[in-house]
């Protein structure tokens, strides 16, 4: 009798299949459900990805649980050296990784390298785990008594990652978790898993032992299995608010630690004293780079006072951007991830027009010679955007900039603080007083001052807030070491054989 894997191979003889990674081996799935991995610039099917079976998910978790028994005892220096080797391998394979990422995700080759590099920074930080996973000691807190803390690994942890950063966000997760002594089950986006799998192969080459890193693929059923599995102790998620809220509630109810970084509506406040050319260039790059498919993209610019006269210059600069496939030289804006994503963005643009916003630049259905089947949307700019309009209230996740206006900085701050999301925000000004007022009064987790996308370096932690984040601790940096470890507090006293007896003590106090 033909099994599902054999049937799949017979039906698609020339399309490679994406493998699972279980116990250090790349495994052909027995899944009955598969999905095409499609080049968004050409619609070429690059591979087919399986939706892992319950038995395969169980095998991945069981592999991690077995490996944890020895990995947790691996000296911290040995763990660090693996990540020193891993960062070297990523650097050596940067061009290949970027080419894979561009083919399946669509972003430009330069942006793909940036995606990988920002993840590489976290790998480098993981190599410093010896200085990050240290406890504290208080000597002689009472008569001959010391108290100290241990930061010990949790066990099997899991990560669920989105399509827009298929290298960076997996690298946010599993290196820090594994460096802390945990094992890991990763579920990358089913839309673009190829670069993630190549990164997993390089991790094995760097010396990560069998079972310490496992990779499964799939959709909602796999996500739910991760949330429910009793042997998974912690779950990290980056993606949409709808899915993130579901993951947080379901995994929390199952007793797990959970961190969910979710949707956004990032505002940039433009004061009229800002450097005009630098500000406009920053806005255009932060809005339309990666075709707007960044959770930290600037999607709303609040023009304060006379800055409202900058609209024509913004439009003029946006028109200079080159729309093309990510592999073509000089490309600024590649395709969005899928046909469905393109239609959603186009639908929101149409609703923006219908709801009364002024369409200053229309990027609908651009002609891209040689890539007529691509999922392209050009830079699009609306002015006169207000709360209550669909293009303001929803995260568009495409190359669309909404321009709102405010009479004063106070009015701009009130507008931003009234929005439920709190991923990132920025202010452009030459006034130190205005910048200080903004950073003090704004209720958003990550703030840029003349920096449009204020994603912190790995020495710090990603600190989105409000509806953009569920869970107290963010990815990477110091916070994630706390997330991936259990703090044990030890209070100890040792007696010499010749020491005097302290007698019976029935109080709570140490003497």
TrEMBL record:
UniProt xrefs under Gene3D superfamilies: Aldehyde Dehydrogenase, Chain A, domain 1, Aldehyde Dehydrogenase, Chain A, domain 2
Keyword Transit peptide: no
Keywords in alphabetical order: NAD, Oxidoreductase
Residues in Aldehyde dehydrogenase domain copies: 28-490
GO MF term set: methylmalonate-semialdehyde dehydrogenase (acylating, NAD) activity
InterPro entries in the cross-refs: Ald_DH/histidinol_DH, Ald_DH_C, Ald_DH_CS_CYS, Ald_DH_N, Aldehyde_DH_dom, MeMal-semiAld_DH
Stretch forming the signal peptide: none
BP GO annotations: L-valine catabolic process; thymine catabolic process
Superkingdom of source: Bacteria
Keyword NAD: yes
Enzyme class of the recorded protein, top EC level: oxidoreductase
Entry EC number(s): 1.2.1.27
Entry's family note: Belongs to the aldehyde dehydrogenase family.
Protein name per the record: methylmalonate-semialdehyde dehydrogenase (CoA acylating)
Organism, scientific name: Noviherbaspirillum saxi
């Amino acid at each position: 009798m033909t099994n599902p894997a054999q049937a799949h191979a017979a039906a698609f003889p020339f399309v490679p299949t994406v493998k699972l990674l279980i116990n250090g081996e790349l495994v052909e799935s027995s899944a009955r459900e598969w999905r095409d991995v499609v080049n968004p610039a050409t619609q070429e099917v690059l591979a087919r990805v399986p939706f892992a079976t319950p038995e395969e998910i169980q095998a991945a978790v069981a592999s991690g649980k077995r490996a944890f028994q020895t990995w947790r005892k691996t000296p911290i220096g040995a763990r660090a050296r693996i990540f020193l080797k891993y960062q070297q391998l990523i650097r050596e394979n940067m061009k290949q990784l970027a080419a894979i990422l561009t083919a399946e995700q669509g972003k430009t080759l330069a942006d793909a390298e940036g995606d990988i590099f920002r993840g590489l920074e976290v790998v480098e930080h993981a190599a410093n785990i010896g200085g990050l996973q240290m406890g504290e000691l208080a000597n002689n807190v009472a008569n001959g008594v010391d108290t100290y803390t241990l930061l010990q690994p949790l066990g099997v942890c899991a990560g669920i990652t989105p399509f827009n950063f298929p290298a960076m966000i997996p690298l946010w997760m599993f290196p820090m978790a594994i460096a802390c002594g945990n094992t890991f089950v990763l579920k990358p986006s089913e839309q673009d898993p190829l670069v993630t799998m190549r990164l997993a192969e390089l991790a094995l080459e760097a010396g990560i032992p069998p079972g310490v890193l496992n990779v499964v693929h799939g959709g909602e059923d796999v996500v739910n299995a991760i949330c429910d599995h009793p042997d998974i102790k912690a779950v990290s998620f980056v993606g949409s608010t709808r899915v993130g809220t579901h993951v947080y509630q379901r995994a929390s109810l199952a007793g797990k630690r959970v961190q969910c970084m979710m949707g956004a509506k990032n505002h940039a406040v433009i004061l009229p004293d800002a450097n005009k050319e630098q500000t406009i260039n920053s806005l255009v790059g932060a809005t339309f780079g990666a075709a707007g498919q960044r959770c930290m993209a600037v999607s709303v610019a609040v023009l304060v006072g006379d800055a409202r006269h900058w609209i024509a210059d913004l439009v003029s600069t946006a028109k200079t951007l080159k729309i093309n496939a990510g592999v073509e030289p000089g490309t600024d804006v590649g395709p969005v991830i899928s046909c469905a994503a393109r239609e959603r963005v186009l639908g929101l643009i149409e609703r923006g027009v219908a709801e009364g916003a002024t369409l200053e630049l229309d990027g609908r259905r651009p002609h891209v010679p040689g890539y007529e089947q691509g999922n392209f949307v050009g830079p699009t700019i609306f002015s006169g955007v207000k709360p209550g309009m669909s293009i303001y209230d929803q995260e568009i996740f495409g190359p669309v900039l909404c321009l709102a206006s405010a009479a004063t900085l106070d009015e701009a701050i009130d507008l931003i603080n009234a929005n439920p999301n709190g991923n990132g925000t920025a202010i452009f000004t030459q006034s130190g007083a205005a910048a200080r007022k903004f950073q003090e009064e704004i209720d958003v987790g990550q703030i840029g001052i003349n920096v449009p996308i204020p994603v912190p370096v790995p020495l710090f932690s990603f600190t989105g807030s409000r509806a953009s984040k569920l869970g107290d601790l963010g990815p990477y940096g110091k916070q994630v070491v706390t997330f991936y470890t259990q703090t044990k507090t030890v209070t100890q006293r040792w007696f010499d054989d010749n020491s005097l007896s302290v007698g019976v003590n029935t109080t709570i106090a140490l003497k």
